[in-house]
């Protein structure tokens, strides 16, 4: 071999250590034998891990409130500055020594944390958001809660909080709704919803910058305003040139609190200027990624005249893999196959502007649990307004169709495996 040529090390302990540290290797740690998730951090000594208790929904204890609060109507509940939660919450604590304690269902109220708690300093927090829907058939449903539970596990592990079996989280979500659903989302209010917010936080009272050795999972359930049909459609302002929401190699794909706090400055400024959300662009090319905390879609015609539903891809891990996004793409493929091609690819704001200029831009919408499927009527980019057709009732025809498919599954007009019925106590 010529002197000076360095042979790359493809085997040996040093190389192995490096590949073990990639994000995909971290993901691989999520799955172990029997679909069981190893408790807590990955332990090289399985014998030690076996002694740690798993998260187990069957151990849930119930302490019901002696003083149930009056249930406000939707308008009152959403008018205050404090999110109104239902009577109960579920908590489960974890420690590196013992694993998961039995989860508890108990009256809604404050948590106790030391000022040194990991979450308060190092953003060891992740969350999920899903709704419970009161159906027109009287039944209470969650929409694909298995997807939220799986995503929560992915986010949890990304910030070195303890793993759990996602089916157990799903059971806990159903358990909370079984207790609070009947009163807080009564059968007399079909077509309404509550919002479930599972959260995991690092609670270790230790300032050392390291993975927490204590954590807590909790679930609360709240009211949330409807945001899916703003008068005149949703108006977006593109992100400032000197800000990105997420980056390649970052954690934009995980629902970790650290993604959201820093985005609020731009959102607040956009609101002051009369816009609803930021359309987050990425890179010098200006790739369209997400609209606020929702996935972003456009319907356009290609120069060749093909109608496409276009959204950003998942493979570069910039965007959140939304349950709404995934469902819409699947429904569009199944039910609008003759009308729309479904395309997941990188696309730039300039392509959208060009489509508009050439009369090829058909519709645009944002989609996520909070905003449901919300028509976008305007994008403001570098001093110019891009006006997007919204048609009748401020909602384009494809947007309305996709929204209708989703609505019918969520509210039981269509029986579908995505609608999981809550077994209510009463
Ligand atoms: C939660 C979220 C979404 C939407 O995900 P859903 O599962 O559809 O609710 C999209 N983008 C971001 C950044 C989010 O946080």
UniProtKB/TrEMBL annotation:
GO molecular function annotation: branched-chain-amino-acid transaminase activity
State the needed cofactors, names only: pyridoxal 5'-phosphate
What is the protein name given in its UniProt record?
A: Branched-chain amino acid aminotransferase II
Species this protein is from: Coniochaeta ligniaria NRRL 30616
| Residues annotated with N6-(pyridoxal phosphate)lysine modification | 255
Record's signal peptide: none
- For the region Disordered, give the residue spans: 1-20
Keywords per UniProt: Amino-acid biosynthesis, Aminotransferase, Branched-chain amino acid biosynthesis, Pyridoxal phosphate, Transferase
Belongs to which family?
Belongs to the class-IV pyridoxal-phosphate-dependent aminotransferase family.
Q: Which is a Gene Ontology cellular component entry for this protein?
A: mitochondrion
Domain of life the protein comes from: Eukaryota
One GO term under biological process is: L-leucine biosynthetic process
